[in-house]
């Protein structure tokens, strides 16, 4: 999450020539984050002890040239009020502003709609990042830079694929979720644009849109599901998306570069992906010597985050990759591994919770076993095939789930306010 | 008096346990299976017990000789060189079974019940006919051979109906008989013969065979699922008749009763054990362990916070911390289940170490 933007001597103030724009989406988006997003807007969901969007701010705060952070989304203003208040104390040098879209305009559409607010203070460049990502990068003297990372060839088609010149790193070609193999270098959803390049590009795209109908490419059968599930498959005319509508055009310009990161990268799209993301953020914090994390001991395998208000019995064994939320209670002889335990939850004595998310105010009974199936960090998918059926690899208990004593829950997604009295596996529980 | 126990072959139905020990020596409620029968026979004055086997492992001979001494009986091994069915072994042991005119018992080695041999002898002598077979009542007689009595007679058998489609009765052959020595002359030498399908129908035709209703429980424990059910029935019976053989329900870890623990076993803190649990000699149970409906064979170990249900844990095996075993899981000798591992209906062969979940019933070679 480190970054150094080369200082360029410019007229505007103490080198603060960059703004960060975080695209936070809205309540009708992020449906793949259900059932967790039924209760908390995805950007505010706690991963490694902090809201997803906090991790973005932490990365942004390390960039000295940032003059302001602009969040764009279509959640109600009240949703982020408390978060912004807290964040302005934690990041005093980072003014944060939330701009609400009254209708979904698409990622590029939103950016363009608020161009006056973004250009206020005369920034030269803007970082644009999706809230489910938190990594920034060094820039070149370019009009546009995209953060890319390498994934396995079979995973690549689920993302935007970048073909780049191996020497100059210039982007030669960009395709969003291609049907076949194009490249294993994929778009991480973080961009640095010169304001002189991005807004004219969006304007051109809008003009083209009104001049002639959009060319729609139909997905192949292999990709049907991913396109069907995609968050941004809105076909409304006003919707203008950065990935589909702008980037391919930018690739035609000579000044579009890719910055390839070797650092960790994990998109938080589905609810289950919060578990590997939690693991990666915790490992990152652990390597950087964060004081927030719990001290290792025979019953604590680092990295583990325990909120100061949580109660953990000394005979319980936690970790690795565990986050315990505020006021949660972990009973005697309980075992928790690769799991997020959210606020006010209670894991009773001798229970075992592996590869799962325990929703707010939930109870896991004595000797109960709540279990997901680990997926390799590199796989970038949170579903697995079991007995020929695609199921969630991570078990997710929605808000106020009650798992009775000795009950086993494996590879299930449980919607809020359910009581599980019998063993269940490979199911979605409505 | 004399008795013959039909032990038979390799006990493949009870694998993986019988890969390590011959079936008669596998502990059922902390006692070799065959000991339950031998003790019951000895208590009614049986002096000679013939074990009809078609293999003869040394370990069985050595162990049973010790048993014989403690009970004061003679044990004879009768080895079939070729399979002789269920009646052939009787003829093969004619020298012993027919050495006097006293009737003799015949037992299938897989059955467990309360073995009411004294009542059986008394009943047999009272009717004075050639044979008596124990019967038990079952809920679904259509799966078995059902016994039909003569009209207006409470015990004389009229015929056998194999797997009846229509209800003709609910009494089935329990695999325990008492027969007069005259039966031996009905069996041909060296020809495989079925006692159920050939010898008994012949006796029935002469009106010489009676049935005796077994009181209490009865179970064929020849396979793991039934071994566990049979253990539940046996422990429930003990709770009524000999509660001192069980751990007192007032013991803090006992939950739901029917818990038998060898005095040499060690049990940790905050465990919840029961109902229907047998813990063998030198077993070690950690803290916060939950056991129900299971048998732990001698020298096995269940580590802290594990959860075990409907499982047979084999000799010298170890169940890891926070492991969960269920659904008729059977661990052979010296099996290790890793920490946090889940096993659903796994049959694990001896000396295996399990490091990944077994989600669906499987045999782990």
UniProtKB/TrEMBL annotation, chain A:
Pfam families: GMPPB_C, NTP_transferase. One of its GO terms (cellular component) is proteasome complex. Keywords: Proteasome. Pathway: Nucleotide-sugar biosynthesis; GDP-alpha-D-mannose biosynthesis; GDP-alpha-D-mannose from alpha-D-mannose 1-phosphate (GTP route): step 1/1. InterPro entries: GMPPB_C, Hexapep_transf_CS, Mannose-1P_guanyltransferase, NTP_transferase_dom, Nucleotide-diphossugar_trans. Its EC number is 2.7.7.13. SUPFAM superfamilies: Nucleotide-diphospho-sugar transferases (SSF53448). Belongs to the transferase hexapeptide repeat family. Involved in cell wall synthesis where it is required for glycosylation. Involved in cell cycle progression through cell-size checkpoint. This is Mannose-1-phosphate guanyltransferase. It comes from Apiospora phragmitis.
Automatic annotation (TrEMBL), chain B:
It comes from the Eukaryota. PANTHER family: SUGAR-1-PHOSPHATE GUANYL TRANSFERASE. This is Mannose-1-phosphate guanyltransferase. Keywords: Cell cycle, GTP-binding, Nucleotide-binding, Transferase. Involved in cell wall synthesis where it is required for glycosylation. Involved in cell cycle progression through cell-size checkpoint. The lineage of its organism: Eukaryota, Fungi, Dikarya, Ascomycota, Pezizomycotina. It comes from Apiospora phragmitis. Belongs to the transferase hexapeptide repeat family. CDD domains: M1P_guanylylT_B_like_N (cd06425). It catalyses: alpha-D-mannose 1-phosphate + GTP + H(+) = GDP-alpha-D-mannose + diphosphate.
């Amino acid at each position: 999450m480190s970054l150094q933007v080369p200082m360029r001597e410019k007229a505007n103030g103490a080198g603060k020539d960059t703004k960060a724009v975080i695209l936070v989406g809205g309540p009708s988006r992020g449906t793949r984050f259900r059932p967790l997003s039924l209760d908390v807007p995805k950007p505010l969901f706690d991963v490694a002890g902090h809201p997803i969007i906090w991790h973005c701010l932490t990365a942004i705060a390390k960039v000295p040239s940032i003059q302001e952070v602009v969040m764009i989304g279509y959640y109600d203003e009240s949703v982020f009020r408390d978060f912004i208040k807290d964040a302005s104390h934690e990041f005093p040098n980072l003014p944060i502003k939330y701009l609400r879209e009254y209708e979904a305009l698409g990622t590029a559409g939103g950016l363009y709609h608020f161009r006056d607010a973004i250009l206020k203070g005369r920034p030269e460049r803007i970082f644009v990042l999706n809230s489910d990502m938190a990594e920034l990068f060094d820039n070149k003297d370019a009009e546009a830079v995209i953060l890319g990372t390498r994934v396995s060839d079979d995973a690549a088609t689920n993302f935007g694929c970048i073909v780049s010149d191996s020497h100059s790193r210039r982007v030669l070609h960009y395709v969003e979720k291609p049907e076949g193999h194009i490249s294993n270098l994929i778009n991480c959803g973080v961009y640095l644009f010169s304001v002189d390049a991005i807004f004219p590009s969006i304007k051109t795209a809008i003009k083209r849109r009104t001049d002639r109908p959009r060319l729609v490419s139909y997905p192949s059968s292999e990709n049907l599901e991913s396109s069907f599930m995609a968050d941004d498959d809105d076909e409304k005319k006003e919707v203008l998306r950065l990935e589909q509508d702008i980037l391919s055009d930018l690739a035609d310009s000579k000044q579009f570069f890719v910055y390839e990161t070797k650092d960790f990268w994990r998109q938080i799209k589905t609810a289950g992906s919060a578990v590997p993301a939690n693991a990666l953020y915790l490992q990152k914090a652990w390597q950087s010597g964060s004081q927030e994390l719990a001290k290792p001991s025979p019953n604590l395998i680092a990295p583990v985050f325990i909120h100061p208000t949580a109660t953990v019995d000394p005979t319980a064994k936690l970790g690795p990759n565990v986050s315990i939320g505020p006021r949660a209670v972990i009973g005697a002889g309980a075992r928790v591994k690769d799991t997020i335990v959210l606020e006010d939850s209670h894991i009773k004595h001798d229970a075992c919770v592996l590869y799962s998310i325990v929703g707010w105010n939930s109870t896991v009974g004595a000797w109960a076993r709540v279990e997901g199936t680990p997926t390799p960090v590199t796989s970038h998918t949170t579903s697995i095939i079991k007995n020929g059926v695609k199921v969630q690899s991570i078990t997710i208990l929605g808000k106020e789930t009650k798992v009775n004593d000795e009950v086993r829950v494996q590879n299930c997604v449980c919607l809020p306010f359910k009581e599980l009295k019998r063993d269940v596996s490979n199911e979605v529980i409505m | 008096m004399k008795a013959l126990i039909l032990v038979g072959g390799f006990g493949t139905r009870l694998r993986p346990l019988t890969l390590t020990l011959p079936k008669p020596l596998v502990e059922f409620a902390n006692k070799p299976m065959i000991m339950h029968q031998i003790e019951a026979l000895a208590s009614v004055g049986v002096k000679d017990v013939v074990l009809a086997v078609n293999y003869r492992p040394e370990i069985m001979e050595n162990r049973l000789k010790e048993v014989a001494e403690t009970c004061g009986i003679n044990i004879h091994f009768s080895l079939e060189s070729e399979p002789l069915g269920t009646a052939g072994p009787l003829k093969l042991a004619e020298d012993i079974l027919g050495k006097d005119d006293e009737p003799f018992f015949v037992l299938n080695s897989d059955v467990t019940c309360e073995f009411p041999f004294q009542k059986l002898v008394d009943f047999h002598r009272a009717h004075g006919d050639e044979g008596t077979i124990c019967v038990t009542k079952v809920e679904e007689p259509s799966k078995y051979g059902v016994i039909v009595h003569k009209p207006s007679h409470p015990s004389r058998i009229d015929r056998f109906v194999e797997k009846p489609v229509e209800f003709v009765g609910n009494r089935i052959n329990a695999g325990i008989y008492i027969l007069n020595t005259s039966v031996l002359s009905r069996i041909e030498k060296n020809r495989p013969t079925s006692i159920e399908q050939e010898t008994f129908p012949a006796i029935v035709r002469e009106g010489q065979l009676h049935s005796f209703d077994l009181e209490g429980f009865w179970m064929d424990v020849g396979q793991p699922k039934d071994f566990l059910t049979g253990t539940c029935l046996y422990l429930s019976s003990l709770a009524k008749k000999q509660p001192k053989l069980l751990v007192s329900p007032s013991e803090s870890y006992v939950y739901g009763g029917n818990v038998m623990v060898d005095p040499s076993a060690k049990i940790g803190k905050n465990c919840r054990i029961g109902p229907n649990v047998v813990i063998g000699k030198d077993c070690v149970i950690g803290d916060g362990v939950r056991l129900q409906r299971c048998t732990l064979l001698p020298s096995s170990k269940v580590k802290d916070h594990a959860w075990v249900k409907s499982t047979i844990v084999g000799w010298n095996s170890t169940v890891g911390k926070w492991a969960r075993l269920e659904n008729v899981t059977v661990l052979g000798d010296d099996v290790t289940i890793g920490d946090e591992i889940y096993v659903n209906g796994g049959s694990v062969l001896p000396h295996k170490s399990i490091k990944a979940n077994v989600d669906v019933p499987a045999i782990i070679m």
